[in-house]
Protein backbone atom coordinates (compact mmCIF):
# COMPACT_ATOMS: atom_id res chain seq x y z
CA UNK A 1 0.00 0.00 0.00
CA UNK A 2 2.83 2.38 0.83
CA UNK A 3 4.49 1.59 -2.50
CA UNK A 4 1.25 2.38 -4.32
CA UNK A 5 0.95 5.71 -2.49
CA UNK A 6 4.51 6.63 -3.39
CA UNK A 7 3.85 5.81 -7.06
CA UNK A 8 0.64 7.87 -6.96
CA UNK A 9 2.46 10.85 -5.49
CA UNK A 10 5.12 10.52 -8.18
CA UNK A 11 2.52 10.45 -10.98
CA UNK A 12 0.72 13.48 -9.55
CA UNK A 13 3.96 15.40 -9.29
CA UNK A 14 4.75 14.62 -12.93
CA UNK A 15 1.42 16.11 -14.03
CA UNK A 16 2.66 19.58 -13.10
CA UNK A 17 6.05 19.31 -14.79
CA UNK A 18 5.83 21.13 -18.09
CA UNK A 19 7.93 19.57 -20.84
CA UNK A 20 10.71 21.67 -22.25
CA UNK A 21 10.31 22.75 -25.85
CA UNK A 22 12.77 23.94 -28.41
CA UNK A 23 12.78 27.71 -28.86
CA UNK A 24 11.08 28.56 -32.20
CA UNK A 25 13.12 30.26 -34.88
CA UNK A 26 12.42 33.78 -36.08
CA UNK A 27 11.08 32.45 -39.40
CA UNK A 28 8.72 30.02 -37.67
CA UNK A 29 7.53 32.78 -35.36
CA UNK A 30 6.87 35.10 -38.31
CA UNK A 31 4.77 32.60 -40.26
CA UNK A 32 1.58 32.95 -38.10
CA UNK A 33 1.69 36.75 -38.34
CA UNK A 34 2.33 36.66 -42.10
CA UNK A 35 -0.53 34.21 -42.57
CA UNK A 36 -2.81 36.41 -40.48
CA UNK A 37 -1.82 39.46 -42.54
CA UNK A 38 -2.60 37.50 -45.71
CA UNK A 39 -5.93 36.13 -44.45
CA UNK A 40 -7.08 39.53 -43.21
CA UNK A 41 -5.66 41.53 -46.12
CA UNK A 42 -7.24 39.33 -48.79
CA UNK A 43 -10.18 37.79 -46.93
CA UNK A 44 -11.35 40.87 -45.05
CA UNK A 45 -9.80 43.63 -47.13
CA UNK A 46 -10.82 42.27 -50.55
CA UNK A 47 -13.65 39.76 -50.09
CA UNK A 48 -15.15 41.22 -46.90
CA UNK A 49 -15.19 37.87 -45.09
CA UNK A 50 -15.89 38.38 -41.41
CA UNK A 51 -12.71 38.81 -39.39
CA UNK A 52 -13.70 36.24 -36.75
CA UNK A 53 -13.31 33.21 -39.04
CA UNK A 54 -10.08 34.61 -40.48
CA UNK A 55 -8.64 35.02 -36.98
CA UNK A 56 -9.66 31.43 -36.20
CA UNK A 57 -7.86 30.25 -39.34
CA UNK A 58 -4.80 32.18 -38.20
CA UNK A 59 -5.05 30.59 -34.76
CA UNK A 60 -5.37 27.14 -36.36
CA UNK A 61 -2.21 27.71 -38.40
CA UNK A 62 -0.35 28.91 -35.30
CA UNK A 63 -1.60 25.86 -33.39
CA UNK A 64 -0.36 23.44 -36.06
CA UNK A 65 3.08 25.06 -36.03
CA UNK A 66 3.12 24.87 -32.23
CA UNK A 67 2.24 21.15 -32.42
CA UNK A 68 5.24 20.62 -34.69
CA UNK A 69 7.33 22.16 -31.90
CA UNK A 70 5.98 19.53 -29.51
CA UNK A 71 3.29 21.50 -27.69
CA UNK A 72 0.23 19.51 -26.63
CA UNK A 73 -3.34 20.65 -27.10
CA UNK A 74 -3.64 20.97 -23.31
CA UNK A 75 -0.78 23.47 -23.24
CA UNK A 76 -2.20 25.48 -26.13
CA UNK A 77 -5.66 25.43 -24.57
CA UNK A 78 -4.20 26.75 -21.32
CA UNK A 79 -2.54 29.55 -23.32
CA UNK A 80 -5.87 30.48 -24.93
CA UNK A 81 -7.69 30.41 -21.58
CA UNK A 82 -5.02 32.54 -19.89
CA UNK A 83 -5.13 35.08 -22.72
CA UNK A 84 -8.92 35.37 -22.64
CA UNK A 85 -9.00 35.36 -18.84
CA UNK A 86 -6.78 38.43 -18.72
CA UNK A 87 -9.26 40.32 -20.92
CA UNK A 88 -12.49 39.25 -19.18
CA UNK A 89 -12.76 42.29 -16.86
CA UNK A 90 -12.59 44.64 -19.83
CA UNK A 91 -15.07 42.49 -21.78
CA UNK A 92 -17.51 42.80 -18.89
CA UNK A 93 -17.18 46.58 -19.19
CA UNK A 94 -17.99 46.33 -22.92
CA UNK A 95 -21.19 44.43 -22.11
CA UNK A 96 -22.09 47.03 -19.47
CA UNK A 97 -21.66 49.75 -22.10
CA UNK A 98 -24.46 48.13 -24.12
CA UNK A 99 -26.58 48.08 -20.97
CA UNK A 100 -25.83 51.76 -20.40
CA UNK A 101 -26.63 52.90 -23.95
CA UNK A 102 -29.96 51.07 -24.06
CA UNK A 103 -31.12 52.49 -20.72
CA UNK A 104 -29.91 56.02 -21.48
CA UNK A 105 -31.81 56.14 -24.76
CA UNK A 106 -34.96 54.67 -23.19
CA UNK A 107 -34.83 57.27 -20.40
CA UNK A 108 -34.37 60.17 -22.84
CA UNK A 109 -30.89 61.05 -21.54
CA UNK A 110 -29.09 60.61 -24.86
CA UNK A 111 -31.90 62.25 -26.92
CA UNK A 112 -31.79 65.23 -24.54
CA UNK A 113 -28.01 65.55 -24.94
CA UNK A 114 -28.41 65.44 -28.73
CA UNK A 115 -31.04 68.16 -28.56
CA UNK A 116 -28.73 70.34 -26.46
CA UNK A 117 -25.96 69.82 -28.99
CA UNK A 118 -28.17 70.88 -31.88
CA UNK A 119 -28.92 74.17 -30.12
CA UNK A 120 -25.24 75.13 -30.42
CA UNK A 121 -25.39 75.43 -34.22
CA UNK A 122 -24.13 78.78 -35.48
CA UNK A 123 -24.77 79.75 -39.12
CA UNK A 124 -21.79 82.12 -39.10
CA UNK A 125 -19.17 79.57 -38.06
CA UNK A 126 -20.45 76.55 -39.89
CA UNK A 127 -17.30 74.35 -40.01
CA UNK A 128 -16.47 75.02 -36.38
CA UNK A 129 -20.05 74.39 -35.26
CA UNK A 130 -20.44 71.24 -37.35
CA UNK A 131 -17.29 69.76 -35.82
CA UNK A 132 -18.25 70.68 -32.24
CA UNK A 133 -21.83 69.43 -32.49
CA UNK A 134 -20.80 66.14 -34.15
CA UNK A 135 -18.15 65.75 -31.44
CA UNK A 136 -20.73 66.14 -28.67
CA UNK A 137 -23.31 63.84 -30.23
CA UNK A 138 -20.71 61.16 -30.98
CA UNK A 139 -19.32 61.48 -27.45
CA UNK A 140 -22.74 60.83 -25.92
CA UNK A 141 -23.82 58.12 -28.36
CA UNK A 142 -20.46 56.38 -28.96
CA UNK A 143 -21.04 56.05 -32.70
CA UNK A 144 -19.17 57.93 -35.41
CA UNK A 145 -21.13 56.15 -38.14
CA UNK A 146 -24.50 56.99 -36.55
CA UNK A 147 -23.49 60.63 -36.10
CA UNK A 148 -22.34 60.98 -39.72
CA UNK A 149 -25.40 59.09 -40.98
CA UNK A 150 -27.80 61.48 -39.23
CA UNK A 151 -26.39 64.88 -38.28
CA UNK A 152 -23.70 64.56 -40.94
CA UNK A 153 -26.29 64.31 -43.68
CA UNK A 154 -28.14 67.31 -42.24
CA UNK A 155 -24.94 69.37 -42.06
CA UNK A 156 -23.80 68.45 -45.57
CA UNK A 157 -27.21 69.54 -46.86
CA UNK A 158 -26.87 72.87 -45.06
CA UNK A 159 -23.37 73.28 -46.52
CA UNK A 160 -24.77 72.80 -50.00
CA UNK A 161 -27.41 75.45 -49.34
CA UNK A 162 -24.74 77.85 -48.08
CA UNK A 163 -22.41 77.24 -51.00
CA UNK A 164 -19.71 75.95 -48.64
CA UNK A 165 -17.22 73.56 -50.35
CA UNK A 166 -18.15 69.96 -49.64
CA UNK A 167 -14.64 68.71 -48.83
CA UNK A 168 -14.00 70.90 -45.75
CA UNK A 169 -17.60 70.40 -44.60
CA UNK A 170 -17.26 66.61 -44.78
CA UNK A 171 -13.83 66.75 -43.12
CA UNK A 172 -15.14 68.80 -40.18
CA UNK A 173 -18.11 66.43 -39.75
CA UNK A 174 -15.99 63.26 -39.82
CA UNK A 175 -13.26 64.70 -37.58
CA UNK A 176 -15.88 65.70 -35.01
CA UNK A 177 -17.62 62.33 -35.18
CA UNK A 178 -14.38 60.42 -34.65
CA UNK A 179 -13.23 62.74 -31.87
CA UNK A 180 -16.35 61.93 -29.86
CA UNK A 181 -16.18 58.24 -30.80
CA UNK A 182 -12.53 58.04 -29.71
CA UNK A 183 -13.25 59.48 -26.26
CA UNK A 184 -16.68 58.04 -25.61
CA UNK A 185 -16.99 55.32 -22.94
CA UNK A 186 -19.85 53.97 -25.08
CA UNK A 187 -17.69 53.40 -28.18
CA UNK A 188 -16.70 49.86 -29.13
CA UNK A 189 -13.17 50.83 -30.21
CA UNK A 190 -12.63 52.94 -27.08
CA UNK A 191 -13.46 49.87 -25.01
CA UNK A 192 -11.49 47.52 -27.25
CA UNK A 193 -8.19 49.44 -26.95
CA UNK A 194 -7.91 48.95 -23.17
CA UNK A 195 -8.87 45.29 -23.61
CA UNK A 196 -6.00 44.68 -26.04
CA UNK A 197 -3.48 46.70 -24.02
CA UNK A 198 -4.82 45.50 -20.63
CA UNK A 199 -5.33 49.02 -19.32
CA UNK A 200 -8.26 50.72 -17.59
CA UNK A 201 -11.04 52.31 -19.67
CA UNK A 202 -11.23 55.69 -17.95
CA UNK A 203 -7.48 55.92 -17.49
CA UNK A 204 -7.21 55.31 -21.23
CA UNK A 205 -9.73 58.04 -22.06
CA UNK A 206 -8.02 60.62 -19.86
CA UNK A 207 -4.60 59.70 -21.26
CA UNK A 208 -5.87 59.91 -24.84
CA UNK A 209 -6.82 63.56 -24.29
CA UNK A 210 -3.12 64.45 -24.35
CA UNK A 211 -2.87 63.59 -28.05
CA UNK A 212 -6.47 63.93 -29.23
CA UNK A 213 -7.21 67.22 -27.46
CA UNK A 214 -4.48 69.32 -29.13
CA UNK A 215 -5.17 67.71 -32.52
CA UNK A 216 -8.88 68.55 -32.19
CA UNK A 217 -8.19 72.15 -31.08
CA UNK A 218 -5.84 72.74 -34.03
CA UNK A 219 -8.57 71.46 -36.30
CA UNK A 220 -11.09 73.84 -34.73
CA UNK A 221 -8.68 76.74 -35.22
CA UNK A 222 -8.33 75.88 -38.91
CA UNK A 223 -12.11 75.53 -39.30
CA UNK A 224 -12.60 78.89 -37.58
CA UNK A 225 -10.12 80.69 -39.86
CA UNK A 226 -11.43 79.06 -43.03
CA UNK A 227 -15.03 79.59 -41.90
CA UNK A 228 -14.57 83.35 -41.61
CA UNK A 229 -14.79 83.52 -45.38
CA UNK A 230 -18.36 82.19 -45.13
CA UNK A 231 -19.49 84.99 -42.77
CA UNK A 232 -22.63 86.83 -43.76
CA UNK A 233 -24.26 83.89 -45.48
CA UNK A 234 -27.65 82.75 -44.21
CA UNK A 235 -28.61 79.17 -43.45
CA UNK A 236 -31.86 77.32 -43.73
CA UNK A 237 -32.15 75.40 -40.46
CA UNK A 238 -35.25 73.43 -41.39
CA UNK A 239 -33.44 70.09 -41.25
CA UNK A 240 -32.01 70.77 -37.80
CA UNK A 241 -35.36 72.11 -36.55
CA UNK A 242 -37.06 68.96 -37.82
CA UNK A 243 -34.60 66.77 -35.93
CA UNK A 244 -35.24 68.73 -32.73
CA UNK A 245 -39.02 68.64 -33.21
CA UNK A 246 -39.08 64.85 -33.53
CA UNK A 247 -36.79 64.43 -30.50
CA UNK A 248 -38.97 66.69 -28.35
CA UNK A 249 -42.13 64.97 -29.57
CA UNK A 250 -40.85 61.46 -28.88
CA UNK A 251 -39.28 62.18 -25.46
CA UNK A 252 -40.06 64.26 -22.41
CA UNK A 253 -36.98 66.19 -21.28
CA UNK A 254 -36.16 67.11 -17.69
CA UNK A 255 -32.95 68.17 -15.95
CA UNK A 256 -32.92 64.95 -13.90
CA UNK A 257 -32.07 63.06 -17.09
CA UNK A 258 -28.55 64.46 -16.68
CA UNK A 259 -28.09 62.52 -13.43
CA UNK A 260 -26.95 59.22 -15.05
CA UNK A 261 -24.01 60.89 -16.90
CA UNK A 262 -23.20 62.79 -13.70
CA UNK A 263 -23.10 59.52 -11.78
CA UNK A 264 -20.71 57.92 -14.29
CA UNK A 265 -18.55 61.06 -14.16
CA UNK A 266 -18.52 60.88 -10.35
CA UNK A 267 -17.28 57.27 -10.40
CA UNK A 268 -14.61 58.20 -12.95
CA UNK A 269 -13.34 61.24 -11.04
CA UNK A 270 -13.28 59.39 -7.70
CA UNK A 271 -11.57 56.42 -9.42
CA UNK A 272 -14.23 54.05 -8.14
CA UNK A 273 -14.83 50.62 -9.75
CA UNK A 274 -16.12 51.03 -13.30
CA UNK A 275 -18.68 48.23 -13.58
CA UNK A 276 -20.70 49.10 -10.42
CA UNK A 277 -20.82 52.72 -11.61
CA UNK A 278 -22.16 51.69 -15.02
CA UNK A 279 -24.75 49.35 -13.53
CA UNK A 280 -25.86 52.03 -11.04
CA UNK A 281 -26.19 54.63 -13.83
CA UNK A 282 -28.18 52.15 -15.93
CA UNK A 283 -30.57 51.38 -13.08
CA UNK A 284 -31.03 55.10 -12.40
CA UNK A 285 -31.72 55.71 -16.11
CA UNK A 286 -34.26 52.86 -16.21
CA UNK A 287 -36.08 54.42 -13.22
CA UNK A 288 -36.10 57.82 -14.95
CA UNK A 289 -37.46 56.15 -18.11
CA UNK A 290 -40.47 54.93 -16.13
CA UNK A 291 -40.95 58.35 -14.52
CA UNK A 292 -40.62 60.63 -17.55
CA UNK A 293 -41.21 58.54 -20.67
CA UNK A 294 -44.01 56.49 -19.08
CA UNK A 295 -43.53 53.54 -21.38
CA UNK A 296 -44.08 49.92 -20.34
CA UNK A 297 -41.36 48.60 -18.01
CA UNK A 298 -40.85 45.62 -20.34
CA UNK A 299 -39.70 48.03 -23.06
CA UNK A 300 -37.05 49.49 -20.74
CA UNK A 301 -35.68 46.06 -19.82
CA UNK A 302 -35.70 45.00 -23.48
CA UNK A 303 -33.74 48.13 -24.37
CA UNK A 304 -31.11 47.19 -21.78
CA UNK A 305 -30.89 43.64 -23.11
CA UNK A 306 -31.35 43.74 -26.87
CA UNK A 307 -31.27 47.48 -27.58
CA UNK A 308 -33.69 50.38 -27.86
CA UNK A 309 -35.96 50.44 -30.92
CA UNK A 310 -36.86 54.00 -31.93
CA UNK A 311 -40.26 54.45 -33.55
CA UNK A 312 -40.56 58.20 -34.03
CA UNK A 313 -41.42 57.78 -37.70
CA UNK A 314 -38.48 59.99 -38.69
CA UNK A 315 -35.81 57.85 -40.33
CA UNK A 316 -32.78 59.88 -39.25
CA UNK A 317 -33.78 59.83 -35.59
CA UNK A 318 -34.76 56.16 -35.68
CA UNK A 319 -31.41 55.20 -37.25
CA UNK A 320 -29.47 57.13 -34.60
CA UNK A 321 -31.40 55.93 -31.56
CA UNK A 322 -32.13 52.30 -32.46
CA UNK A 323 -29.08 50.86 -30.73
CA UNK A 324 -27.57 49.75 -27.43
CA UNK A 325 -28.33 46.71 -25.30
CA UNK A 326 -25.98 44.02 -24.03
CA UNK A 327 -26.55 41.87 -27.12
CA UNK A 328 -25.21 44.63 -29.38
CA UNK A 329 -21.78 44.14 -27.80
CA UNK A 330 -21.55 40.45 -28.66
CA UNK A 331 -19.85 41.15 -32.01
CA UNK A 332 -17.09 43.10 -30.29
CA UNK A 333 -16.75 40.40 -27.63
CA UNK A 334 -16.59 37.61 -30.23
CA UNK A 335 -13.87 39.23 -32.31
CA UNK A 336 -11.91 39.84 -29.11
CA UNK A 337 -12.25 36.15 -28.16
CA UNK A 338 -10.94 35.06 -31.57
CA UNK A 339 -8.04 37.51 -31.47
CA UNK A 340 -7.07 36.45 -27.96
CA UNK A 341 -7.22 32.79 -28.98
CA UNK A 342 -4.59 33.50 -31.64
CA UNK A 343 -2.55 35.57 -29.18
CA UNK A 344 -2.74 32.85 -26.52
CA UNK A 345 -1.29 30.24 -28.88
CA UNK A 346 1.61 32.35 -30.18
CA UNK A 347 2.40 33.43 -26.62
CA UNK A 348 2.34 29.92 -25.12
CA UNK A 349 4.40 28.54 -28.01
CA UNK A 350 7.07 31.19 -27.42
CA UNK A 351 6.64 32.74 -30.86
CA UNK A 352 5.65 36.16 -29.54
CA UNK A 353 8.65 36.26 -27.22
CA UNK A 354 10.99 35.50 -30.13
CA UNK A 355 9.49 38.33 -32.18
CA UNK A 356 9.71 40.73 -29.25
CA UNK A 357 13.32 39.78 -28.56
CA UNK A 358 14.28 40.58 -32.15
CA UNK A 359 12.17 43.73 -32.12
CA UNK A 360 13.71 45.02 -28.92
CA UNK A 361 17.17 44.59 -30.41
CA UNK A 362 16.24 47.45 -32.74
CA UNK A 363 13.99 49.35 -30.33
CA UNK A 364 16.54 51.10 -28.16
CA UNK A 365 14.27 53.51 -26.28
CA UNK A 366 10.69 54.32 -25.44
CA UNK A 367 10.34 56.70 -28.36
CA UNK A 368 11.18 54.09 -30.97
CA UNK A 369 8.83 51.63 -29.24
CA UNK A 370 5.87 54.03 -29.48
CA UNK A 371 6.70 54.86 -33.11
CA UNK A 372 7.01 51.14 -33.99
CA UNK A 373 3.60 50.53 -32.41
CA UNK A 374 2.12 53.47 -34.27
CA UNK A 375 3.48 52.33 -37.64
CA UNK A 376 2.19 48.80 -36.99
CA UNK A 377 -1.32 50.12 -36.30
CA UNK A 378 -1.24 52.21 -39.48
CA UNK A 379 -0.02 49.18 -41.46
CA UNK A 380 -2.83 46.97 -40.13
CA UNK A 381 -5.35 49.73 -40.89
CA UNK A 382 -4.07 49.95 -44.47
CA UNK A 383 -3.98 46.16 -44.95
CA UNK A 384 -7.34 45.29 -43.39
CA UNK A 385 -9.27 48.56 -43.28
CA UNK A 386 -10.52 47.48 -39.86
CA UNK A 387 -10.39 49.69 -36.78
CA UNK A 388 -10.89 46.62 -34.56
CA UNK A 389 -7.90 44.77 -35.97
CA UNK A 390 -5.67 47.86 -36.04
CA UNK A 391 -6.17 47.94 -32.25
CA UNK A 392 -6.17 44.25 -31.36
CA UNK A 393 -3.14 43.02 -33.32
CA UNK A 394 -0.58 45.71 -32.33
CA UNK A 395 -2.06 45.78 -28.83
CA UNK A 396 -1.40 42.08 -28.28
CA UNK A 397 1.98 42.17 -30.03
CA UNK A 398 3.47 45.14 -28.18
CA UNK A 399 1.92 44.77 -24.71
CA UNK A 400 4.89 42.77 -23.32
CA UNK A 401 7.36 45.27 -24.80
CA UNK A 402 5.66 48.18 -23.06
CA UNK A 403 5.86 46.27 -19.77
CA UNK A 404 9.56 45.58 -20.29
CA UNK A 405 10.17 49.26 -21.02
CA UNK A 406 8.35 50.26 -17.83
CA UNK A 407 5.59 52.09 -19.70
CA UNK A 408 1.98 52.05 -18.52
CA UNK A 409 -0.45 50.06 -20.65
CA UNK A 410 -2.53 53.18 -21.28
CA UNK A 411 0.34 54.48 -23.46
CA UNK A 412 -0.15 51.46 -25.70
CA UNK A 413 -3.95 51.74 -25.84
CA UNK A 414 -3.64 55.45 -26.65
CA UNK A 415 -1.15 54.81 -29.45
CA UNK A 416 -3.33 52.16 -31.11
CA UNK A 417 -6.30 54.54 -31.07
CA UNK A 418 -4.20 57.45 -32.38
CA UNK A 419 -2.83 55.35 -35.24
CA UNK A 420 -5.66 52.89 -35.86
CA UNK A 421 -9.21 53.94 -34.99
CA UNK A 422 -9.11 57.42 -36.51
CA UNK A 423 -6.89 56.46 -39.47
CA UNK A 424 -9.33 53.88 -40.87
CA UNK A 425 -11.88 56.44 -42.25
CA UNK A 426 -9.01 57.97 -44.27
CA UNK A 427 -8.38 54.64 -46.05
CA UNK A 428 -10.44 54.66 -49.29
CA UNK A 429 -10.88 50.86 -49.41
CA UNK A 430 -11.93 50.48 -45.77
CA UNK A 431 -15.57 50.02 -44.82
CA UNK A 432 -15.42 53.26 -42.85
CA UNK A 433 -13.96 55.14 -45.82
CA UNK A 434 -16.57 53.72 -48.18
CA UNK A 435 -19.37 54.51 -45.72
CA UNK A 436 -18.27 58.10 -45.06
CA UNK A 437 -17.75 58.86 -48.74
CA UNK A 438 -21.05 57.25 -49.75
CA UNK A 439 -23.06 58.86 -46.96
CA UNK A 440 -21.75 62.41 -47.44
CA UNK A 441 -21.20 62.25 -51.20
CA UNK A 442 -17.56 63.35 -50.91
CA UNK A 443 -14.65 61.08 -51.88
CA UNK A 444 -12.17 59.95 -49.23
CA UNK A 445 -9.29 61.61 -51.04
CA UNK A 446 -11.14 64.94 -51.00
CA UNK A 447 -12.19 65.02 -47.34
CA UNK A 448 -9.09 63.34 -45.84
CA UNK A 449 -6.90 66.51 -45.75
CA UNK A 450 -9.63 68.29 -43.77
CA UNK A 451 -9.89 65.58 -41.08
CA UNK A 452 -7.06 67.22 -39.17
CA UNK A 453 -7.78 65.50 -35.87
CA UNK A 454 -7.52 62.07 -37.50
CA UNK A 455 -3.84 62.39 -38.39
CA UNK A 456 -2.49 65.16 -36.13
CA UNK A 457 -2.94 62.80 -33.18
CA UNK A 458 -0.13 60.67 -34.63
CA UNK A 459 2.12 63.74 -34.78
CA UNK A 460 1.57 64.43 -31.07
CA UNK A 461 2.02 60.74 -30.21
CA UNK A 462 5.45 60.74 -31.89
CA UNK A 463 6.37 64.11 -30.36
CA UNK A 464 5.58 62.86 -26.87
CA UNK A 465 7.38 59.59 -27.58
CA UNK A 466 10.75 61.25 -28.15
CA UNK A 467 10.39 64.07 -25.61
CA UNK A 468 9.00 61.85 -22.86
CA UNK A 469 6.16 64.30 -22.27
CA UNK A 470 2.80 62.70 -21.35
CA UNK A 471 4.32 59.21 -21.27
CA UNK A 472 3.03 57.51 -18.12
CA UNK A 473 5.30 55.07 -16.24
CA UNK A 474 4.01 51.68 -15.15
CA UNK A 475 3.14 51.86 -11.46
CA UNK A 476 1.25 48.62 -10.71
CA UNK A 477 0.99 45.03 -11.84
CA UNK A 478 -2.75 44.98 -12.61
CA UNK A 479 -3.32 48.00 -14.83
CA UNK A 480 -6.98 47.24 -15.45
CA UNK A 481 -7.69 48.90 -12.10
CA UNK A 482 -8.57 52.64 -11.98
CA UNK A 483 -5.66 54.96 -11.27
CA UNK A 484 -3.07 53.03 -13.25
Layout of secondary structure:
Layout (H helix, E strand, L loop, with lengths): L1 H14 L10 H19 L6 H18 L4 H35 L1 H10 L7 H16 L2 H19 L3 H18 L4 H10 L3 H27 L10 H13 L8 H11 L4 H20 L3 H10 L8 H7 L8 H19 L2 H12 L3 H19 L2 H18 L4 H13 L9 H10 L3 H4 L4 H16 L17
Strand content: under 5%
The structure class reads: mainly alpha
Radius of gyration: 24 Å
Number of helices: 23
Helix content: over 70%
Helices and strands, in order, run as HHHHHHHHHHHHHHHHHHHHHHH
Q: Main beta sheet, described?
A: none
**What kind of assembly state do the chains in view correspond to?**
single chain
What ranges have pLDDT less than 50 throughout 5 or more consecutive residues? 3-8, 10-18
Tertiary shape: globular
Quantity of strands, as a count: 0
Averaged pLDDT: 84
Our measurement of the CA-to-CA distance between the termini, rounded to an integer number of angstroms, reads 55 Å
Task: Give your account of this protein's structure.
This protein has 484 residues and is mainly α. The protein has a domain at 102-328. Helix content is 74%, strand content 0%. The protein has 23 helices and no strands. The longest helix has 35 residues, at 73-107. The N and C termini lie far apart (55 Å). The model is unreliable at 3-8 and 10-18 (pLDDT under 50).
Question: Tags for this entry?
Answer:
about 475 residues, mainly alpha, disordered N terminus
Brief overview:
This protein is mostly helical.
